[in-house]
Each structure stands twice: as structure tokens, then as C-alpha cells.
Amino acid sequence: MRFRLCESCGQQNMIYRNFHNLKLSGLGLGMMRLPVVNGDDNIIDEPKAAEIIDYAYRHGINYYDTAWGYHNGNSELIAGKYLSKYPRESFCLASKFPGYDNSNMPKIKEIFEKQLKKCQTPYFDFYLIHNVYEGNIDDYLNPDFGILDYLLEQKEKGRIRHLGFSAHGSTEVIKRFLAAYGEHMEFCQLQVNYMDWHFQEAQQKVEIARHAGIPVWIMEPLRGGKLAKSSNEMEAELKAMRPDESIPGWAFRFLQSIPGVTMVLSGMSSLEQLKDNIETWQTDAPLSPEEFDTIVKLADEEVRRGGLPCTACHYCTSHCPQKLPIPELLALYNEHIITGGGFLAPMTVASMPKEQQPSSCIGCRSCEQVCPQQIEISNAMHEFSSILGL
Ligand code: SF4
Ligand code: SF4
Questions:
Q1: What is the pTM (predicted TM-score) of this model?
Q2: How far apart are CA 53 and CA 266, in angstroms?
Q3: How far is CA 216 from CA 26, 44, 256, 298, in A?
Q4: What is the pLDDT of residue 10?
Q5: 220 alpha carbon to ligand 2 midpoint, in Å?
Q6: Could you tell me where the beta strands, DSSP code E, fall in the chain?
Q7: Ligand nearest to the CA of 318
Q8: How far apart are alpha carbons 204 and 196 in whole angstroms?
Q9: Ligand 2 centre and the CA of 374: distance in Å?
Q10: Could you say which DSSP state residue 322 is in?
Q11: How many whole angstroms from 200 Cα to the centroid of ligand 1?
């Protein structure tokens, strides 16, 4: 696959990255946030989605990322229906095995066959082991389920061209996964953006991938659009450095600065977003080291302002009669509060043993006696438990 010129203007208006013999558009269309009807995530607004896919295709985007679970299964159907209008070798299609739901592990064959049918394709250019995290890594690595063996078999048959994984787990989980399956992984998809660079250890995760020699695909470059609405202080500082760059533009330039980043996936819900993002991706304008450090510093300050100031010193843990993993729970609490919700904290807490969840706090406040940051830990545990309903 080579790069394509824009069908409207005849120019190359997209950056392309090399991957094996492919030229992949630097920006890929994430199909998890297609426009929907009446705010119902299950009902995709087909005319608008078709317009987005067609505009993306005609303006040089050649990578489309769907998954079994997106839009309750309807994203794959839309991908199949609208991408099948184009020559199959002119675009790359990615989908994923939904092991985020452990009950799917024994059904890999059945699910994979259905995915090919839904997507109206004889093969996936890219196929991922979806969302490796604390709650499913044991099953993913369990030879009884044979996940890797099955996928390697499909690859041998040409039904998967490139195999990779996505991960929301900790650095330890990612290392463990790579130690077991790394030699077969050609790429990995990680949540990386300036807010998560330190906050969610995105920097370390990128370094782990680099160390393993695996290129990085980015998901949530704008944290589900939340980074597009930075604080006034942050926006003013960024504008002072690059007056003509939009805030989403900063998020993309940040990613253009990271060696090893090959693909940036953005879930775009409107034609306007798509047009803006394509315009940004006409140029490679990575941040200078000073700009990079500044945006990370500003993001870290935003995180500190929005969350509890836990430094993960662990002084508190030996004082907890319930043996709660307090710093880990506070990190998840911060993640949930600062980002205004999302699936990450509920998913991770639900995968923990009941006795380690915030609801097991008995409110004794022993931890607070030794916390150098004077955090009201018991209140946080109580609030977190009621927010999550766990
Ligand atoms: S207040 Fe909760 S978290 Fe703190 S020591 Fe007591 S049980 Fe543990
Ligand atoms: S003592 Fe305070 S700052 Fe240290 S890990 Fe516990 S909650 Fe965090």
C-alpha cells in the first residue's frame, strides 16, 4: 500500500509512516465514537458515519480501527458496509479479540469468524488482543484458551496480516504480557497523551515497547475529547508558545514528538473534528524539547490541582488493618475524578479481590495518622466506593 493523494485537491495532504511494506496514514480513524442517534451509543447515525468514512478515505486516511465491542457490536457492521465500497488493498482494517470480557476467552474461533463476516472482509490487516489488563492477563496467557495459538494459525492462513495488542494495564502487566507473547507482537496500542505521560505512566509504557522493539499505536490522544477543553491557564501558556496551534493540535504535536509512535487513532464524531484533525496531520511539527517539557509540566499541575496529592510513599499501607492497596486505589480515584469518569477505574477496581476494594475500608483513619500529605483517605475510600457502586 502506498500513500494516496487527496481526491479533492490532488495533493498529498496526510503524513504517512512506514510499517513493513506499508505507508500508513499518521492519523487513523477510530470507529468507537461514530456519530449516534439521540445520544444512544448503540444506534450509529449511518448517513453521518458514512460521510465521515468517505471524507477520511478521500483525504488520505488509510487506517480504520474497529472492535467487537464498539457501539455494542455495530461499529464492525458499519466498517464492513461502508469500507467495502473501496478496493480492499487501498485501506487497512483493524479489529480486536474482546478478551476484556473474560467469558469470551473460550469463544475465540466463533467470534473471529463473525468479525470477518461483519466487516465483509476475508482478512484483517491488523488484529489486536484487546485491552490487556490486570483482570484478564491470566486468561490471555492461559494455554487452555489457546488465544495466541489460534491467532497465529489465522495469521499463517493470511486472515490476519499483523498481530498486536492493546493495553490499559499497569507497566507490570505489559511487561508480563511481552515476556510471554512479545516475540509474536508486531505493534501495541497504548493510551498516551500529555496528561497521562506521568499520571498513567505512559512514558514508561512507551519505553517498554521501545525496549521490546515494537512500534506504538496511540489511543485516546485527546482522552476522549477532554484534553480539547484545557483550563484557561494552560490554554494561555500554550497559545503564548504557538499562537496558531489549536489545543487538539498540541495533543497531536506532542505525539509526533515521541519516537516509535507510528499510528495515532482518534475517535472522531463529526466531520468538523475530522477536517480539523486532517489539517493538523498535513504537517509534521513535533514539539521542541522545551515545548515538550512545558506541556508535561502544565499537565502535571492540572493533575495535581484536580486530584488528591498522594505521592505513593506507601507509609499508610502497613497501618491499614484491612491491608488495602491505598496508593493504588487513590491513583484510580484520581484517574476517575480528573478525567470526569470513564471505564478504566471501574474496570480495574472490579477486577480486584473484594477485600482490596475501597468498600472494604472500615473508616478507622489509622492511615491518616501517618500520611505526610494529610489526605483524608477514609473519606476518599467512601466516596470512591459510592461513585463506583462497588
Ligand atoms: S481508614 Fe480505611 S484505608 Fe485507612 S487504615 Fe482504616 S481501613 Fe485502611
Ligand atoms: S501515606 Fe499518604 S501520600 Fe503516602 S501513599 Fe499513603 S495516602 Fe499516599
A1: 0.83
A2: 13
A3: 12, 29, 12, 24
A4: 61
A5: 29
A6: 16-19, 22-25, 27-30, 36-37, 40-44, 63-65, 92-97, 124-132, 160-167, 187-191, 216-219, 261-267
A7: 1
A8: 11
A9: 8
A10: T
A11: 24
Element (H, E) at 142: none
Among 265, 210, 209, 186, residue whose Cα is nearest residue 22: 186
Residue nearest to atom 4 of ligand 2 (CA): 313
Residue nearest to atom 6 of ligand 1 (CA): 364
Give the pairing type, strands 36-37 and 40-44: antiparallel
Which residue ranges of the chain lie beneath pLDDT 70? 1-12
Q: Confirm or reject: Cβ of 331 under 6 Å from ligand 2.
A: no
pLDDT at 1: 57
pLDDT on residue 7: 61
With cell 505513593, the residue in question is 312
pLDDT at position 234: 87
Spatial distance between the Cα atoms of 256 and 251, rounded to a whole number of angstroms: 9
Ligand nearest to the Cα of 331, by number:
2
What pLDDT was estimated at residue 100?
A: 86
Predicted pLDDT at 4: 61
Please provide the DSSP assignment of 207-276 as one string: HHHHHTT--EEEE-TTTTTGGGS--HHHHHHHHHH-TT--HHHHHHHHHHTSTTEEEEEEE--SHHHHHH
- Altogether, the residues listed in the chain come to a count of 390
Which residue's CA is the nearest one to ligand 2's atom 7?
Answer: 310
Residues in contact with ligand 1 by the CB-under-6-Å rule are: 319-322, 324, 326, 361-367, 377-378, 381
What element of type H or E holds 77?
Answer: helix 74-83
